[in-house]
């Protein structure tokens, strides 16, 4: 029988169980830290993916703009070529007229 104020002795194997609890708590803490790190990597990955998608959208937009500008340049060149021919003809006519004056 126990005397008043006396604490009962710990059951057999309690020290080992406490040690196991410590290891378990350490493992849980590491697991939680790993999960937090993984969640942060997922957030970073989502952000990078969003930035990449925006860049792809920008590239497509600018590709369309560049194509439109190329078409405009081609059209301008087609208008300029006949004008250059006319200028050449005018120059030769002017030269002929100058010769006839002299």
Structural commentary:
The protein is mainly alpha-helical. The chain has one helix and no strands. The longest helix has 88 residues. The protein is rod-shaped and about 145 Å long. It comes from Galbula dea.
List the helices and strands and how they pair.
Layout: H1 14-101
Low-confidence stretches: none
Largest pleated sheet = none
Helix content: over 70%
| Radius of gyration, whole Å | 44 Å
Distance between the termini: 147 Å
DSSP helical segment count = 1
Strand content: under 5%
Would you list the SSEs in sequence order as H and E?
Answer: H
What is the mean predicted local confidence, pLDDT? 89
The count of β-strands is: 0
Shape: rod-shaped
Structural class comes to mainly alpha
Protein name: ICE1 protein
Brief overview, please?
With about 100 residues, the chain is mainly alpha-helical. The protein is about 85% helix and about 0% strand.
Any key phrases for this structure?
102 residues, mainly alpha, 86% helix, rod-shaped, ICE1 protein
């Amino acid at each position: 029988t126990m005397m008043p104020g006396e604490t009962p002795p710990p059951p057999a194997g309690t020290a080992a169980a406490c040690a196991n609890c410590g290891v378990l708590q350490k493992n849980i803490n590491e697991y939680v830290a790993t999960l937090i790190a993984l969640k942060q990597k997922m957030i970073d990955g989502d952000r990078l993916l969003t930035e990449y998608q925006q860049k792809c959208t920008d590239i497509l937009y600018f590709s369309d703009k560049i194509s439109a500008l190329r078409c405009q340049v081609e059209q301008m060149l087609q208008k300029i070529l006949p004008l250059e021919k006319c200028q050449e003809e005018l120059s030769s006519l002017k030269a002929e007229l100058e010769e006839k004056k002299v």
